[in-house]
């Protein structure tokens, strides 16, 4: 039960300590196996300790705003949602063939580089790096599930939390699968296709899952769960639309990623979907999705996207959707602290620069 003396800062400290404890336990267990396996857990611990912790903070803040009293269970659920995020990020990097994350080598890059330095052929070294990353993602995924399965709450809430996790992974995988399919460019992607993909890939695990877990642990009534589901999905799409704009026109020093990365990967976004209708697109279409795209070709592609009016279109859609979600939040029957939190969250997602 809740200790009245426990404040927001205390719960955040509890989360940091608990996540460190969970990972340290696995890291120590790995020492009984091979040295590379221990190195893999070292890498996972470093990776999980970084980042902005947006999702666990959302869960913990929402649990408090909804009057929740199960701080320890909420902290464990926050750890699980962060471990899920790490798992999906690792797998996403493998799918996108990225070697860098947050400005430094990711697990694929780190393990492949070490193998190269030790004399392994390039192809085998890269396969080793990818295999290490795939296994790392799997380990984080199962660890997240294990943490949720051990929540110290009554059985109905634990089962509800596990059902949320199962549906989140199922739907996020569908969104990622659709993202890869769209990048093949075997058929034209409509704006609706892109928005549906963003809804499944980003909204489900980044916003709906944290809010649903918080509400379930707080014992919120079904009406609150329904309202939060609708609001969370809309916030998730806003977040992804902003992410797509930053991926092409953001400040690399703030985002930590190249503004040519999405273009080289052939990532289907609303920017690209809109720009395709511009006659000038045909002049740069061969560059899109070309892993060997040069900087000058990338600049040309980015210029065509900008001059097509795509950024203005997406910005207007972000503004429109932010206003819509603000109305939904203010018209809801959610507690005042929850309303304030969500209003701030929408504004942050719509205007973020990193």
UniProtKB/TrEMBL annotation:
InterPro entries: Isoprenoid_synthase_dom_sf, Polyprenyl_synt, Polyprenyl_synt_CS. It holds the Pfam family polyprenyl_synt. Its cofactor is Mg(2+). PROSITE patterns: POLYPRENYL_SYNTHASE_1 (PS00723), POLYPRENYL_SYNTHASE_2 (PS00444). Keywords: Magnesium, Metal-binding, Transferase. The keyword Metal-binding applies. SUPFAM superfamilies: Terpenoid synthases. Belongs to the FPP/GGPP synthase family. PANTHER family: GERANYLGERANYL PYROPHOSPHATE SYNTHASE, SHORT CHAIN ISOPRENYL DIPHOSPHATE SYNTHASE. This is Polyprenyl synthetase family protein. It comes from Microbacterium profundi.
């Amino acid at each position: 039960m809740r200790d009245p003396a426990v404040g927001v800062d205390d719960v955040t400290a509890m989360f940091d300590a608990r996540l460190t404890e969970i990972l340290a336990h696995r890291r120590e267990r790995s020492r009984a196996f091979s040295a590379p396996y221990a190195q893999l857990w070292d890498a996972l611990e470093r990776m999980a300790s970084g980042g902005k912790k947006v999702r666990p903070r959302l869960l913990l803040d929402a649990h408090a705003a909804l009057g929740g009293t199960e701080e320890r269970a909420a902290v464990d659920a926050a750890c699980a949602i962060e471990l899920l995020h790490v798992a999906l990020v690792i797998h996403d990097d493998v799918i996108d063939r990225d070697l860098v994350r947050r400005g430094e080598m990711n697990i694929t890059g780190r393990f492949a580089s070490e193998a190269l330095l030790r004399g392994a052929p390039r192809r085998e070294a890269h396969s080793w790096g990818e295999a290490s990353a795939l296994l790392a993602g799997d380990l984080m995924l199962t660890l997240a599930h294990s943490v949720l399965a051990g929540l110290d709450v009554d059985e109905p809430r634990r089962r509800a939390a596990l059902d949320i996790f199962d549906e989140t992974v199922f739907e996020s995988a569908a969104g990622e699968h659709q993202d890869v399919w769209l990048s093949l460019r075997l058929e034209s992607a409509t704006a609706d296709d892109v928005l549906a993909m963003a809804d499944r890939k980003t909204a489900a695990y980044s916003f709906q899952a944290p809010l649903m877990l918080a509400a379930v642990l707080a014992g919120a009534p079904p009406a609150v769960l329904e309202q939060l589901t609708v609001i969370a999905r809309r916030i998730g799409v806003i977040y992804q639309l902003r992410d797509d704009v930053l991926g092409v026109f953001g400040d690399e020093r703030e985002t930590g990623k190249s503004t040519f990365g999405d273009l080289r990967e052939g990532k289907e976004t609303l920017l690209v979907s809109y720009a395709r209708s511009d006659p000038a697109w045909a002049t740069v279409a061969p560059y899109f999705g070309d892993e060997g795209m040069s900087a000058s070709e990338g600049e040309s592609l980015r210029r065509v996207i900008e001059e097509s009016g795509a950024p203005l279109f997406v910005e207007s859609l972000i503004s429109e959707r932010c206003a819509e979600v603000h109305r939904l939040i203010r018209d809801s029957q959610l507690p005042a602290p929850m309303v304030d939190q969500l209003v701030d969250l929408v504004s942050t997602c719509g205007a973020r620069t990193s």
